Amino acid sequence: MDYSVLHRSSSSFARVSSILTQHGSILTPAFVPVCTTGSPKCVPMSAVDDFDLVFSNTYHLLVHPGANTVAELGGIHSFTSRSKPFITDSGGFQVFSLKYTGGRDELKGRTNKPKQKNMVSKIDEDGVHFRSYRDGRQLFLSPEASISAQHQIGADLIVAFDELPPYGLTQKRLQRSFDRTHRWMKRSLDFHNSSAHTSTQRLYGIVHGETNMGLRLESLRFLLQHNFPGIAIGGSVGQTRKEMYSLICGMRSLLPSDRPVHLLGIGDLQSIVPLIQCGVDSLDSTYPTKAGRHGTALLTPSVDWLISHSLENSLVSATLDEPAAGRLNELHLVLSKAEHQQSAEPIDETCTCPVCLRYSRGYLHHLLKMHESAGQSLVTLHNLHIMRNTMETIRHLIRDNKL
Ligand SMILES: [Zn+2]
Q1: Domain annotation covers residue 291
Q2: Which residues pair with residue 261 across a beta bridge?
Q3: Total number of domains in the chain
Q4: 304 catalytic per annotation
Q5: The one catalytic residue among 162, 268, 281, 284
Q6: Ligand 1 centroid vs 389 CA: distance in angstroms?
Q7: Could you read off the pLDDT of 48-107 as tens digits, one per residue?
Q8: Angle formed at CA 389 by CA 343 and CA 391, multiple of 5 degrees
Q9: Active site residue 284
Q10: Domain containing 94 — which CATH number?
Q11: Residue 337's domain spans which residues?
């Protein structure tokens, strides 16, 4: 489970590195597509073959088919027929989303059953008791139960169990959640270290503290002091780009040089370069697949565009007060717009993906308008291709010290 830095940029904290796992090495900076239940949405697992790392959710795999079944079928690689690395989360994020949003944000569209209230029945120092959104079955997650499930699932990179507090807590409640999260992460680490999985699965601790810089640094120091083999940045990093960049920038001098850093849940084209320049090695996000399902195609950012959206430029940009992710800019093409109806052009004439080589904007517009699932699948395939190629360009720019 080696980690090696191949190049450090002379113009920022960006670095090109390699995380060696039993299922091959992960070249970073890496964009990590989300394959929630063991597949990306709308496209088969083979659509992410070109990505070194993909992200699956322990919570969803626990609900169905269960960690035991994944283990019986040979673990997540064998189960999904993917030979390359996986990362799984702890399940904490989804469970606490159930608690604080009734599952609206995380679980929308995953079941035809009417919305179930009070799905989290009990949270105490031991862990969280909750009901399956799928069939109402009682489930339990604790640091030990989460790590044990992640051992069974068998991803190469796994994540410590944490409490996800809602945005905007009072200082007192935030501190209470923060302290519990650290106790839970230490229990996760102790459980993992006493298992036979330390040589095959790298455990990431999560930096918490929401938008409080003092707590973020304290959390990071805690993880380094306990020697977590990987560092993930989680929780709320703010509601605007300004908050997000200043928070992650503020941590960069303490981010470790000898182990990987992952940012949980953020990875749109506009944010990627500044975040990588703060020292982030990998980022998972549903961004390209979700955009694809909504008929929004990504366009290739040029080298000049990437450089002009560097951290330095972003910190003085007019877009700083925008939401931290999700805004459509000049790199997004909304294919359902009437202007594409008679277009014979491909989505992106510089793109070499099978979709752009074969289909026109007009045809994709038609499929989307007719609600043909092929339309969503094709745009998703193209978007994944753009993310993969963009990361390759970014790695070249870092090696050339241009980012
Ligand atoms: Zn394409």
Answers
A1: yes
A2: 231
A3: 1
A4: no
A5: 284
A6: 10
A7: 999 999 999 999 999 999 999 999 999 999 999 999 999 999 998 888 887 776 544 444
A8: 135
A9: yes
A10: 3.20.20.105
A11: 3-113+141-399
